């Protein structure tokens, strides 16, 4: 159900919270272990800036992942993301709890996901978004399919598109961030 850019404004206006999956969205989906079993992940720096701008705009950003990783906790702390749920066995239930914590409704949420566990949440939110390389069914459940692949600036593209549609992007151009 991807939509055209002309409907960005109507879909974007009510969005006050972004909930993002990690593997395949904030990363390229690869899970890498070093020779002693320590997990590493690569995050795109532009995604980080976008998350900070989204938070600076007075909105909420949440990370929701089925896996548990110290690296994700560290990245969340680094970005000032205080709403983090790792080890989620049921993403819809976890999303409900995060949304209640924030105090908004599903219609105020943008969810960025890339695979089957994300679909139940994507079907409930006001704006469902998938990276360019998302699994087919996740793409089919999305309102927007991004040009960027997971781990390659997908979060940045989504945040920028939302802030532009809400009329909040230009202030960051003037700030010289």
Verbal overview:
It is a single chain. This protein is an alpha/beta fold and 177 residues long. The protein has a single domain (8-169), classed as HAD superfamily/HAD-like (Rossmann fold), CATH 3.40.50. The chain is built from 8 helices and 8 strands.
What's a concise summary of this model?
This protein has 177 residues and is an alpha/beta fold. The protein has eight helices and eight strands.
Helix count, DSSP H or I runs of 4 or more residues: 8
- The CATH first-level class comes to Alpha Beta
Main sheet specs: 6 strands, parallel
Query: What characteristic shape results from the CA principal axes?
Result: globular
Count of structural domains: 1
Rounded to an integer, what's the Rg over CA atoms? Answer: 15 Å
> Which class do the helix and strand fractions yield?
alpha/beta
Mean pLDDT over all positions? 94
CATH-wise, what's the superfamily?
A: HAD superfamily/HAD-like
Compute the number of strand runs: 8
CATH fold label: Rossmann fold
> Alpha-carbon distance between the termini?
35 Å
Oligomeric grouping of the chains: single chain
Order of helices and strands: HEEEHEHEHEHEHEHH
List the uncertain runs. 1-6
CATH architecture: 3-Layer(aba) Sandwich
Task: Give the spatial strand order of the biggest sheet.
Answer: 5-4-1-6-7-8
What fraction of residues sit in β-strands? 5-15%
Question: Approximately how much helix is present in the residues?
Answer: 25-40%
